[in-house]
Design brief:
The chain has eleven helices and seven strands. A seven-stranded mixed beta sheet has the order 3-2-1-4-5-7-6, sandwiched between helices. The chain is of the alpha/beta class.
Length: 282
């Protein structure tokens, strides 16, 4: 098994477990990943409870933003949610897209797909569907989506360039994405980088903010904007699982920062190619 497949297995196993837990259990763990302590939920995620379309059964407390807040979803839009989990962002997106819209959630974890479909069935939604698949190879036709959203998921994807190339491919010309994710400024200590729990917990799989944004530019997106940014504080009780006291002190005194960002980008109207320039998928 190569490194990318190993990482996917870590994520799939962790999030299969998460799908069977309560929201309270997930909030008391690192981005929902059991066994890695607590990244402070009040800092890491945003509150959905007042949003139209919010359904508590679909909220597992796993996000790091509210991508629909800035997604400019209109009535009748087709929206694709990358890493849709139990359906939380899909149901909020549906409230914005309306009965004439369409929402497609994609997740690679079978247990999450089952939970999301169960939630949609209970709500009697006939314009929300969930498809099992990987973000690097989306089970969606080209030029299908008006809007792509995602919430704290792309940092878990080993090949982020391929993930954004697939985002480009499925967007209609003139369509756009609004993605909340975790990025870094500076280098994480090796003890954190090597920790599988911190990878599944949305921290060690994050890449540099400038690299993240450059990937988006290189693939041909336009109007790239960081819509929201906030620092994430990892408490000492988490860090001490992976670093000794001098290591924690050095980390605190370094210029390294972990950030949640929500970023926007649009696909050029004139670009009718099936995928992003240079992505090699055509």
């Amino acid at each position: 098994m190569n490194k990318a497949e190993e990482l996917k297995k870590i994520v799939r196993d962790k999030y299969s477990e998460i799908a069977l837990q309560s929201k309270e259990q997930n909030e008391a763990s690192c981005c929902g990943a059991t066994g890695c302590g607590t990244v402070d939920y009040a800092i890491f995620a945003d509150n959905y409870t007042e949003l139209e379309g919010y359904n508590p059964d679909a909220d597992l407390g796993l996000g790091c933003g509210v991508p629909t807040e800035f997604a400019q979803i209109r009535k009748g839009d087709t929206v694709v949610d990358l890493g849709s989990g139990a359906g939380n962002d899909c149901f909020v997106a549906r409230a914005l897209a309306g009965e004439s819209g369409k929402v497609i959630g994609v997740d690679m974890t079978e247990a999450m797909i089952a939970k999301a479909r169960e939630n949609a069935e209970k709500l009697s939604f006939n314009n929300v569907e969930f498809r099992q698949g990987e973000i690097e190879d989306l089970p969606i036709a080209a030029n299908r989506a008006d809007v792509v959203i995602s919430n704290c998921v792309l940092n878990l994807v080993p090949d982020k360039r391929k993930a954004f190339a697939e985002t480009f491919r499925v967007l209609k010309p003139g369509g756009h994405f609004s993605i909340s994710d975790v990025v870094l400024v500076g280098e994480l200590p090796e003890g954190i980088v090597q920790a599988s729990e911190m990878y599944a917990g949305c921290v060690s799989g994050a890449i540099q903010k400038d690299v993240y944004l450059q990937i988006i530019r290189d693939l041909g997106f336009e109007n790239i904007t960081v819509q929201k940014e906030k620092a994430i504080h990892v408490p000492d009780e988490i860090l001490q699982e992976y670093l000794d006291a001098p290591g924690i002190k050095a980390f605190r005194e370094s210029s390294t920062g972990i950030y949640s960002i929500t970023v926007y980008g649009s696909k050029p109207i004139e670009n009718l190619a099936c995928c992003a320039p240079g992505s090699g998928c055509c």
